[in-house]
Amino acid sequence: MSLYTEYLNEIETRKAEGLHPKPIDDGALVQELIAQIQDAAHPHRKDSLEFFIYNTLPGTTSAAGVKAAFLKQIILGQAVVAEITPDFAFELLSHMKGGPSVEMLLDLALGDDDAIAAKAGEVLKTQVFLYEADMDRLSTAYRDGNAIARDVLESYSKAEFFTKLPDVEDEIKVVSYIAAEGDISTDLLSPGNQAHSRSDRELHGKCMISPEAQAEIQKLQEQHPDKRVMLVAEKGTMGVGSSRMSGVNNVALWTGKKASPYVPFVNFAPVVAGTNGISPIFLTTVGVTGGIGLDLKNWVKKVGPDGKPLVNNDGNPILEQKYSVETGTVLTINTRDKKLYNEAGDQELVDVSSAFTPQKVEFMKAGSSYAVVFGKKLQTFAAETLGVEAAAVFAPSKEVSVEGQGLTAVEKIFNKNAVGVAEGKTLHAGSDVRVKVNIVGSQDTTGLMTSQELEAMAATVISPTVDGAYQSGCHTASVWDKKAQANIPRLMKFMNNFGLITARDPRDGYHAMTDVIHKVLNDITVDDWDIIIGGDSHTRMSKGVAFGADSGTVALALATGEATMPIPESVKVTFKGKMADHMDFRDVVHATQAQMLQQFGDNVFQGRVIEVHIGTLLADQAFTFTDWTAEMKAKASICISEDETLIGSLELAKARIQVMIDKGMDNEAGTLKGLIAKADKRISQIRTGEKPALTPDDNAKYFAEVVVDLDVIDEPMIADPDVNNTDASRRYTHDTIRPVSYYGGEKKVDLGFVGSCMVHKGDMKIVAQMLKNLEEAQGKVEFKAPLVVAAPTYNIIDELKAEGDWEILQKYSGFEFDDMFPKSTARTEYENILYLERPGCNLCMGNQEKAAKGDTVLATSTRLFQGRVVEDSAEKKGESLLASTPVVVLSAILGRTPSSEEYKSAVKGIDLTKFAPPAEAPGTSRSVHF
């Protein structure tokens, strides 16, 4: 059977699902298309021509290579296709973004035919995705006196690829569509359980919100053909939970503009909005697609005569509507004066200037943020080659420097890693900065999209300036189903070839790892001055500063070793008092959020960096705090550690990296060995006093300072989705933090889950110790609800085995994962037993395993969004409550939430994760898990 026949069969299958033919990335199939196009009598010639022109993916796919080479033949007259003239062939090449297409254009521009060379040069002037090899060819030709090369370089030095693009419209008419009330998780836009289809954009687009919502959006488009649909989070924040490029892609697919007539299902320029704006990491993704993200402020807190916000019986602020954005409302965005108006444009509703900074407008004009990044790099290269000053085209980076003001920890890291800043210049929060990225992480449900982005931007190898990069397999670890079997090996092969350390060896040289990516990145980050970019909102390390990002930003960091962003403001978090013996550090984490809201009323963490002065906690335990800051809606977090504690964390990281090396995971470049050497250097700097652990300056300026009182935390804290709150905007947020006594020891628990990136080795030991205690006290352990336990990494399991804890877990498990025979189907029913699951995200992701519909789940994880861990049933709403490991274990054993007394009794004598606030002067106190 030919590849074309297989493709036709696939087309019929997709047609039955209401889908168009899948875009082609296989060069061998394109070869068959070309053969059929060149055969005038071939029965499939017409369809083959359509597929070749309109359905072949650009960039560095093998399909793009074959297509570009054939278009070059047409331009040179070596092949004749009546429907593709040489001029049309040039137009097709201009839409292919880079890689083989740029190579062909350079061949033509630097060739012997003057007329063809001139045309190729004109097309080259519009291209921005050039790499070192392409630039070397241009500069060599220029030095050899080639006139076309000079002409192209002069155009690049003036950034005509940008200046000749149409400007953003002065007025943009939008029609609103309320996607939901309250915070909108990116799960609504791109559900985690549909992660397998993200790289198939049309198929994945069908999962956005609901079929009914999609129909309503289409109806609005029919009624308002001259307007853009604006997706709104009413009374909430848009895009909480993750950056999720697939979510923005889906919004763009349904509401945006087509990027190219010759590239299917790639849209850009979506418009999204929220009463409380856009989640910071999601807003970055909106910029990647040249979109607009608006902070509507259409509901405001009602205030009393004393000027203080009025609250309802639940203690929540009463909101009053400033103006309506109900579905179907037509509004006018004036991009010139940066205001939102009514339809007529004569009533100002809100200032939206934050959505139209000079940099964001450039993204909108260019159609993406990384087109601007590559464009700036190309302009700099051209100007340097010609020996001229680059034309002042792009908005100058905003530089904020306050004389006499010290630096926060994040400001210090940004200044240290800044690129292109004048020597001696000190930048503060609000400055726009290009920074070197040290560590990059790609995870498996966004990895295929990252590989597509790398192909689209014509990248073939990781930037040599990146210290280390890792491709995980944790988000699809639970079930080795047909989708995973098809996607994961292909992803690992691509990333391994690109230069990343990969969880799975394409050559099967080592055991496939499914370690949680955040835990691996936490280990391979070996410098507290590092900047980390990862394809997940929980890219929050306890060393350095880490930013969760979309698949495109991850691709850009891998390809260029850089990222561009403003230096964020910081909120300082310190602690006072003493942590009670019966409390776990997870309760301190939850209490931090609750006390912050009590102190300020509003979430001062949102969109800012949390600088947490933990100091005495090792990296594993400190990560529990930094990880949770994603749910606090913070942009990132920084852990301030004492010298001795940081050294201990680095020694632990070295040991775990060595294990990866021993397993055969290092590459030819010796990336992992290089990280150990870097850790040794950092340890030496600390020990000699040359460069102590990172601390802020005493006179640093913070947006706010939160002091957490440990003395008032006397019982476990639970983050509750509050699914039955009469105010829909208050449901499924992470802001409802309740003490365990709130439930009176009566709330039924249907399933417990200990796992995800929020747990560390100590949590696994706590589970084992609780089982031991119950066995000693009662002679046996009985579960009244299922308990799912998933260790975050294989390293941790190996350590538990060596220390005797895994044996206890095995003794009481009714199921233990077997990597020789991994599950091929997701579990749908649970017995009241202990399940020892494969390392990975498991229930927290919700894309493979889920609790039974309508269950009440008590979990250590981070996700309580509707439908994520558990879906609703016809009779009952599913709910995922979040708590510490001992609370979860005890609840599974009891089948209900414990009373405060039951909890205190159950954890007596157990080595919980303790925390002692650092002394004012550097000390040597260590956590009990040191």
TrEMBL record:
Keywords assigned by UniProt, alphabetized: Iron, Iron-sulfur, Lyase, Metal-binding
Pfam families: Aconitase, Aconitase_2_N, Aconitase_B_N
InterPro entries in the record: Acnase/IPM_dHydase_lsu_aba_1/3, Acoase/IPM_deHydtase_lsu_aba, Aconitase/3IPM_dehydase_swvl, Aconitase/IPM_isomerase, Aconitase_4Fe-4S_dom, Aconitase_B_HEAT-like_dom, Aconitase_B_HEAT-like_dom_sf, Aconitase_B_swivel
Keyword Metal-binding recorded: yes
Enzyme Commission number(s): 4.2.1.3, 4.2.1.99
Aconitase B swivel domain ranges (all copies): 178-407
Enzyme class per UniProt: lyase
Record GO terms (molecular function): 2-methylisocitrate dehydratase activity; aconitate hydratase activity
Record-annotated Aconitase B HEAT-like domain positions: 6-162
Protein name in UniProt: Bifunctional aconitate hydratase 2/2-methylisocitrate dehydratase
Source organism (scientific name): Paracoccus onchidii
